[in-house]
Write a structure and sequence with these properties.
This protein is of the alpha+beta class. The chain contains 27 helices and 34 strands. A hairpin with a 5-residue loop joins β8 (180-185) and β9. The model is unreliable at 166-177, 214-225 and 786-799 (pLDDT under 50).
Length: 930
Amino acid sequence: MSHQNDALNAAALAVSSAKGDRVFQELTRYLATILNVQLALIGRFLGEPPQAIRTLGLYGGGAYRENFEYRLETTPCRAVVGGGFSVVPRDVATLFPEDEYLPKGAVGYAGFPLKDAAGRVAGIIAIISRQAIEDAALVESVLKIFAVRAAAELERRAHEEALAASEANYRAIFEAAEDAIFILDYERGAILDANAKACSSYGYTREELRRVGAGDISGHEPPYTNDDMLRLIAEVRAGRGPLRFDWLRRNRDGSLDWDEVTLKKVDIAGKPHILAMTREITERKTAVEALRGSEEQYRAIFNASADSLVLRDADFRVVDVNPSYEAMSGRRREEALGRSDLTMSPPELTAHVKQLHARALAGERVVFEALARRKDGTRFNIETRGVPILHKGQPHVLYIGRDITARKTEEELLRASEEQYRAIFDASEDALILWNSDLQRVDVNPAYERIYGFSRAEVLKGVYADNVPPEYIERRRDTVRRTLAGERCHFELESVRKDGTPIHVEVRTIPIQHRGKPHVLAIARDVTGRRAAEAERAQLEKQLRQAQKMEAIGHLTGGIAHDFNNILQSILGNLTLAAERTEALDDPKLARALERAQISAQRARELIVQMLTFSRGRRGEARLLSLPQLVGEAAKLLRPALPSTIELRTELAAQVSAVRADPVQVEQVLLNLAINARDAMAGVGLIALAVREARHAGAVCSSCRQKFSGGFVELSVHDTGAGISADVVDRMFEPFFSTKDVGKGSGMGLAMVHGIVHEHGGHILVDTAPGLGARFRIALPAARGASAALAASSPGGKESGRLAGSVLVVDDEDMVLELMGDLLSGWGLEVTLKSNAVDARYAFAAEPQRYDLVLTDHTMPRVTGLELARDIHRIRAGTPVILYTGYGDDIPREELAAANVHTLARKPVDPAELFALLKTTLKQTHNTAK
């Protein structure tokens, strides 16, 4: 109800506000705005009975429209002829398919008749809506309010037209109207009598008017008692009547009105009187003044118009031209008046233009273009519009000519530019979207259709994907607003294709002028592939950085291990020599001290082994083994190393493929992971060990960042600790990286795990999250089809006794060289010491039969141990060479065999192992010599 009251109040206010010559246009604008409809019109019926409608006011799409004339029979307006309200709530376009004037998208229609004072239907006021009309009663009420105002204006204009068209008819109608009549005293001019019209018009009773005497204004100002009126009455008495004049009179209530007054002498009852007949002409007076102003305005506009104006009558004769015509044609006004041919357009157009002239006389606006010629022969393009008008009551046509040479040139340039624009627009590989200032998409190119999946027609209808959120659409419109204000925008966002597929697009917007109006060109590029490539490249770069970092750390570790091994070699050897001397001293305390030092040195040796394993410089002896069996046995040894507050649980699959691995190194992996799990739980919780077969496709290793696929046997170690944060996961496989307190960890455990696992062709997967524990999965390649039978072995016994033979020892470390001399000579060997390979080669070449064995370091300046072994083999084939090294780099077996290297040993060499190795080698050498 509030909405209805608001609409009716707005309608009442609107009809009282519409004034002036554009009253019909203003009424249609108010009507369209109040009812929120697509189109509003006011028109006058033509013919009797009505055959057509001539619009007087037309408003739609936010702008006034040019008036036109259309046939009544094919439109919904024909129902109003009967005099009542007509409404088509919906489907008006379907019900009136032949109505070519219905705007696109029309759904609802309503019309109301405009009636004159006699009750005849003279015109119509109507609206057309894009939505169905749900409240027909409200629409009828609003139309009825507007119809009263429009009908009054229509009748007033009809009266003015009739007056202008026929003064005689107007005068007859005016004289036949009811007049106010006064009978005045012949001498004094006092009012003797007045009719009812006079009383009602002036607001006095008859008795009051009779009491008014000439010049008597006591209490009232009578209508005609001033000096001017007395002078006019005197002229009538003098025989110069009857007199007719306009007079501004004041009514009893103080209001002013114009009267047309006629004074004449009449005889009443044989006596002379003055008869005063008055007719209120306030409205006519105002109209005349307006007409006079309009005529003056017409002449001023006619003469001042920059366009050429030519007025022709019904016979096509030139009635008037303006100065612009003279300037454009080169002819004076006198030369054009009265001519019935074309004065500027080509003569061959005469017949066509006269046909247009006939149509214009019938009420139609016409237009044509031509290549015109001036009086001096110069040519130019002219556009001429013919407008039907009434001039002095007769139908004429006003021809408005405009020089469009520049416009035609601009149009040609614009057409070429438009074609170029369209070619570039359609050829672009990027999606192009053109937005207007109303935030509507008005054009897209084929690339847009290809990228987003919408057709151009769908876009122009405002169609979006069903799953596009409203805030996404509003963001795009906000970007258009900012760009219209002059800002260039550039951003990336996630969009959606028509089929719902998400895409990444890079968008740029720029403000442009299109067809003279501000627009925004949005350029969208599909960067989905680029974003994926960038993500993949970032992953590859991360993998490369990880690999380079691990490789660099490996090289660093190998170098450190080499130097440290030389130190350990000296320590272990000297400890062995010292231990051999303690037996003679019989000093138990010294023996225990040496034993503790020996244990510490062995622990240092194990640390170096871990470093070498990480740097991939040391490979174990791989063989086929059953991982469940190995883990089961290792778990028995692991249990005593764990506190009783930790539960150890195993889940070992019975049937899994064998793996090819070094069992000692696998045990080291298991031990390190178990110790880490113990520390992560602070001694309380569950450690679960499991072995199972698994297949992976595109998994990413947690340590090397490489993708891997295939069949694997997985060893998993799961703890119920606090879990591992993401930043620690990224670094935990680096050597010497540890989260433990100083002195509680070397940081080599997981680095060793990384080295061993990848040396065996495997990978590591880590499943963890803060508060959810951690699970390390070691994926080792399955040896499909291979036997998993394992051979048990037991450690050998301690070697002891004396050795015999001559040994050439080569090492660039003086400390190691001196140790070897003392150690080997103490075992009964003849030892020759050389600090470089060059001197050793010369010594061997001088006495090749002297040496039973050569013991040499591999990494030495100038000549390596392997190169020395080759030279020795060339000098005396069959001489056994024991090569030992502290670096992690492997030497291919083929190269060792070619150089006659008997054994490759690792620094630091345990004296007992070295004793056994020398004993075996010298024994083989002696047997061969025999």
